[in-house]
Specification:
single chain, 232 residues, alpha+beta, five-stranded antiparallel beta sheet, three-stranded antiparallel beta sheet, 13 strands, 23% helix, 25% strand, globular
């Protein structure tokens, strides 16, 4: 199934190889997201925060693909998605849209993965190498989908560190406000209850997602592909 998932994902674009998370033995492009006391007693779920994957890349993913390998029998571990197009349309005034359209935030791999890094030499070395290969990048606060031409809010709690054009206090206040909009309107989200062998694809650009950690300490294993634009 690992090779099938990888090969299917390749139909949509090139695949990201994650610099920190583990991957399946035969496919480096298939990232393993696995938690539970059976596999580790001190490493707990770390995706229970609204985010989009790998936004710290200069070529961030256009799609995500998630395959449910192991789901706890008692349930839990749902994934939620928020619609960043509708949040942009419904939550921002025209004046705010105009201001935000002129701003660029920085995205950082260090911020993105500091929750998942343990304080030991091996993990710190991994993070150091990942930072060297993935320096901070800038993306527009307000971006536009290349096909639908819809505009969407493009900042996320896990990776966005600052807004370059503002001073530190202004940047922090504005980012906290923008982050808060994602939790404000449940009707602008959807929720998927996983069964084993489910597979889900989504648009990474116009959504953010959140993985509920309520299954812990039971075992949940997901296989993820992050699909990026093809190199020209």
């Amino acid at each position: 199934m690992q090779k099938q998932q990888r090969d299917l994902a390749y139909q949509f674009g090139q695949l990201h190889v994650h610099p920190i998370y583990p991957h399946t033995p035969t496919c480096h492009e298939v990232t393993v997201l696995e938690f539970g006391q059976k596999c580790s007693t001190d490493r707990k779920p770390d995706s229970d925060i609204w985010h989009t994957d790998v936004s710290y890349s200069s070529n961030p993913p256009i799609m995500g693909m998630l395959y449910a390998k192991i789901i706890p029998k008692q349930g839990g571990g749902d994934t939620l998605w928020a619609n960043m197009v509708e949040i942009y349309e419904q939550e921002l005034s025209d004046a705010m849209k105009t201001v935000l359209s002129q701003l660029t935030p920085e995205h950082s791999i260090e911020k993105s993965h500091k929750r998942s890094i343990k304080v030991n030499d091996s993990d710190l070395d991994t993070l150091k190498k990942a930072k060297e290969n993935n320096p901070p990048v800038n993306h527009p606060v307000i971006d536009e989908h290349p096909h639908t031409k819809q505009k969407y809010l493009n900042v996320n709690t896990t990776a966005t560190t600052k807004i370059n054009e503002l001073n530190e206090q202004e940047s922090e206040l504005l980012l906290q406000y923008l982050f808060s909009l994602i939790n404000k309107r449940p009707e602008l989200t959807c929720r998927w209850k996983w069964n084993e062998n489910d597979i889900c694809l989504w648009d990474q650009r116009t959504t953010q997602h959140y993985a509920s950690p309520d299954y812990w300490p039971h075992h949940r294993r997901m296989h993820r592909c992050a699909i990026m634009k093809q190199d020209k």
